[in-house]
Amino acid sequence: MTLIKSISGIRGTIGGKTGDNLTPVDAVKFASAYGTWLKEHAGKEKITVVIGRDARISGPMIHNLVMNTLVGLGINVVDLGLSTTPTVEVAVPLEKADGGIILTASHNPKQWNALKLLNEKGEFLSGADGAKILEIAEAEAFDFSDVDSLGEVTTNDAYMDIHIDEVLNLPLVDADLVKKAGFKVVVDGVNSSGGIIIPKLLEQMGVEVVELYCEPNGHFPHNPEPLKEHLTDICDLVVKEKAHFGIVVDPDVDRLAFISEDGEMFGEEYTLVACADYVLSKTPGNTVSNMSSSRALRDITQKHGGSYEASAVGEVNVVTLMKKNNAIIGGEGNGGIIYPELHYGRDSLVGVALFLTYLAENNIKSVANLRASYPQYYMSKNKIELTPQIDVDAILKGMEAKYANEEVSTVDGVKIDLAEEWVHLRKSNTEPIIRIYTEAHTQQQADALALRVINEIKEIAGI
Predict the structure, then answer these.
(1) Which residues of the chain fall below pLDDT 50?
(2) Top CATH class, 3-157
(3) 47: closest CA among 104, 91, 95?
(4) Could you give the CA distance from residue 84 to residue 377 in angstroms, rounded to a whole number?
């Protein structure tokens, strides 16, 4: 099944049968549900939604379907066209809109697309709001407007530039200082909208840019998830060009990874660590990341005198806890930087600008040396497949009991914090799988911990 309905939106593969894939009918159905909910939620006569898309091949088709569905509901649309997830998030409050939709399947391959849904703050919907939209979609309780009450479409293709301006105007971003440092950077835009907006930002900060896969044609030249095994081309090009470092973003530009000058991964987990190190050195405070993110953020936060908290996995959960704890910066270990000074959403532009300013201010010429200066942690990510008959919840309860003398959290699955390492167990909502994330000071220790936990799970499950 390749149509995934969740509280954060709808995601699926293009083509196939209605209800099994993201077909035109499904796109219209869920756009109708969102628009219907928004009309009830906003409580006013005329409402506005901001829409943008990444460069996927299916983007224009889904874009037109969704946009005109909203028009049919009597909703006005501000159409940003080719855009990024954080750009749409920034645009919603600036336009005083009532919501937003980003058409992107993020790091998924080109056959996927999705509707990501935002509220009037430009933030992802709460679980309760998302659930309500799914109910409306299931009931197909739509009431479309008559011919005299149709919505109108306004095109605004300036928001990538506006987004860049908003980033450059942040107090902790210093483009003049970066320009003086004379950086040379390679950018892999995975042939999506990051190939436009990241080079534009860098050029305005006086950085020499070497472009790789920056043509926004939607033909992803490699798996678009910014993991080491997918990034051999940019790793080689950074060394060949003698660049200071490389930048990789996913198709909708909310995940950010750096390549060190030696062609090695800086590490997605450490994107947030480095940005937080800089921000906390200027504005001490608290941080938040999710439970599957590196302990290195906790260490850096404590070094600067702040406190760190871990949320359940999911951007909306990170944002909720950030607001509760007045976090200065936060995000996710997948390269997602959330900097509330601009907005509560993962934003690669913010990450790039803060990182460059940090390097320039501290005269750091070796990104590899910077990475080596941080607490060293290594992760192992595994999963164990169980038969449908096995009670996954009972297994997690058993693991919780087994480690009752350790620091255990059940906010999201079971997270066990040991003195020098941790393990996070999460069950899949769609299949009998337990995902196992471990972290330790060496890769061997992380792998060994994962193997031990897998064997303990098998023992509890009797397999």
Answers:
(1) 1
(2) alpha beta
(3) 95
(4) 31
Expressed in angstroms, the distance from the first to the final Cα of the chain is 27
> What's the chain's Rg over C-alpha atoms?
22
Q: Mapping DSSP to helix (H, G, I), strand (E, B) and coil, where does residue 324 land?
A: helix
Tokens of 458: 């098998």
Looking at the domain 184-373, which fold is it? Alpha-D-Glucose-1,6-Bisphosphate; Chain A, domain 3 (3.40.120)
pLDDT tens-digit readout, 357-402: 999 999 999 999 999 999 999 999 999 988 888 888 999 999 999 9
Asked: is 378-461 a CATH 3.30.310.50 domain? The reply is yes
Please report the sign of the dihedral spanned by the C-alpha atoms of residue 190, residue 191, residue 197, residue 200. Answer: positive
Extract the tokens encoding 48. Answer: 């506005």
pLDDT at position 4:
78
Distance of alpha carbon 15 from alpha carbon 20, whole angstroms: 9
User: Are 187 and 209 a contacting pair, CB within 8 Å?
Assistant: yes
Domain boundaries, the chain: 3-157, 184-373, 378-461
Catalytic residue among 106, 192, 289, 294: 106
pLDDT at 172: 98
The CB density around residue 431, as the number of other CB atoms within 10 Å, is 11
Distance of alpha carbon 319 from alpha carbon 126, whole angstroms:
10
* pLDDT attached to residue 37: 97
The position carrying tokens 């336009």 is 95
Active site residue 260: no
Quote the pLDDT of residue 390. Answer: 85
3-state secondary structure of 312: coil
Residue found under tokens 């992802």: 124
Q: Which of 248, 3, 1, 251 is nearest to 107 (CA)?
A: 251
Distance of CA 394 to the CA centre of its chain: 31
Query: Using one digit for the tens of pLDDT, what is the confidence trace for 220-267?
Result: 999 998 888 999 999 999 999 999 999 999 999 999 999 999 999 999
Give residue 81's pLDDT: 97
Taking the whole predicted model, whether its pTM rises above 0.90 is answered as: yes
- Same CATH topology for 184-373 and 378-461: the answer is no
* Whole-number Å distance between alpha carbons of 236 and 371: 19
For residue 229, give the DSSP letter. Answer: G
Kindly report the number of other CB atoms within 10 A of residue 234's CB atom: 25
Distance between CA atoms of residues 67 and 31, nearest Å: 8
